[in-house]
Amino acid sequence: VRCQFSPPQRALQASAVLRRVSDEHKEPLASSPQQQFDSHPTDHQPEQEPQGPRPSYTGQGGQESEDYESEEQLQHRILTAALEFVPEHGWTAEAIAEGAKTLGLSVAAAGMFHSDGSELILHFVSQCNTKLSELLEQEQKQVQLGEAEKKPTDQFLRDAVEARLRMLIPYIEKWPQALSILLLPHNIPSSLNLLTSMIDDIWHYAGDQSTDFNWYTCRAVLTGIYNTTELVMMQDSSPDFEETWRFLENRVADAMNMGNTANQVQSTGEAVVQGLMGAAVTVSNAETSRTVR
Amino acid sequence: VPTGGASLRPCSTRVTLEGVNRPVIDRIIRVDHAGEYGANRIYAGQMAVLGRSSVGPLIQQMWDQEKDHLKKFNELMVAYRVRPTVLLPFWNVAGFVLGAGSALLGKKGAMACTVAVEESISDHYNSQIRTLMEEDPEKYKELLQIIKQFRDDEREHHDIGLEHDAEAAPAYSVLKTAIQLGCKAAIFLSERI
Question: Which one of A25, A68, A255, B121 has the largest count of C-beta atoms within 10 Å of its C-beta?
Fold first, then answer.
């Protein structure tokens, strides 16, 4: 999902410039990028690079081009490099600029992205989700090969959520900022998409096979658990976030109990209905036998 | 929320999801699942009223086939990781009410309802078959086979309904049109939400 505020045209020109810069980069960056950047309106190459698939934060990869990478891949590389500078600069254009510098690109590369750091955060979240999927896939393979025991559901959910939240630890200082940015209206579709697909992944690997309304309740419950645990983690100062994991354990246990209670309510309800039906049949039989006599 | 792992099994039922046209397959499986679920409830409603009449065994037989269809779509839904429609609880009630309501009009009423619904469903399956054939008959071979089989079963139900005097039902054409309109709306909604 391309951010809606930076006109694609400008971004395309900027990245074309960067391509030339990185191709010609043999000498220090000091003078040439500035000149090229200033003169780019007239100097701009007529051929545009092929429009790769729009950078999508739902984990779909870019295409491998023959000798040069697609714009999406370049952006991914810059954002990945920028993550290293987040603890210091926050989720900002400065971090992206620093990241671009480590790749040997001009700091003007940050101009490719929206200034509030949205793409950086979405990229990070997408990366974490991919890592989580790979982790869960690995565990599943181990269980299938008999190398590991299959975990009970509550344990599985606890471990999956913990693994995912632990990925935030290096960035925990700046994460509250990220959360608030993810809640901005123009980011909500993408961030919601990422959240729902992550939760769906976790349930899928947990072995959920529901095909009725439970599909929705399961996911809603787990989303609630994940979000509240994430918020607790922001304020947790205990060693290795023990308080957070204990909170998580309690919430998962609550959810399991809720499921049990729902089942109990349902079976009690069914028993009551059957009792009433039986009573009604008995009474009507008594009536008919009385009238017959 | 599944409790104690009773309804959970290791996810080994998987098809390769790469190269599959997700949006198209998503819709197809979601709406077909909703359709079979609804059909199940319609027959359940009809049985509730006409279960002990002469057409009881016939309706039971058609119901059992629909149960098999639903079971198949449950499997496909998990295999392709498709989400069910949010409207399932609604189709639960609406289907039962339609079945029971049409059965209260008599045996012919129930048959008329069956004819209307099965005709809608077969047309719908036919257009899905066309879509899949246009996409890639090889890639979706298994799915195509299943849908073709189910289309034939629904066609059979339709013919059984006609054989049992559906057309003699009270206000047959009005009933049929109304029910088919409802089916079209249900299909439209279930594909999307």
Answer: B121
Please tell me which of the candidates A204, A207, A211 has its beta carbon nearest to residue B74: A211
Identify the sign of the CA torsion B131, B132, B137, B138: positive
In a domain? residue B149: yes
Whole-model pTM: value is 0.74
Nearest-5° angle of CA B67, CA B69, CA B71?
70
**Listed residue (B32, B186, B54) closest to B110, CA to CA:** B54
Q: Which residue's structure tokens are 């609630």?
A: A224
Please give the average per-residue pLDDT across A280-286, as a whole number: 87
B192 to chain A, closest Cα gap in Å: 15
Range of the domain at B178: 22-191
Inform me whether the pLDDT recorded for B180 exceeds 90. yes
Rounded Cα distance, A139 and A148, in Å:
8
CA dihedral B40, B43, B47, B48 (to 10 degrees): 70
> Which residues lie closer than 8 Å to B28 by C-beta, 6 or more apart?
B128, B131, B132, B143, B147
**Res. A6: pLDDT tops 80:** no
Residues on A contacting B at a C-beta cutoff of 8 Å: 140, 143-144, 150, 152-153, 200, 204-218, 221, 255-256, 258-260, 262-263
Domain count, chain B: 1
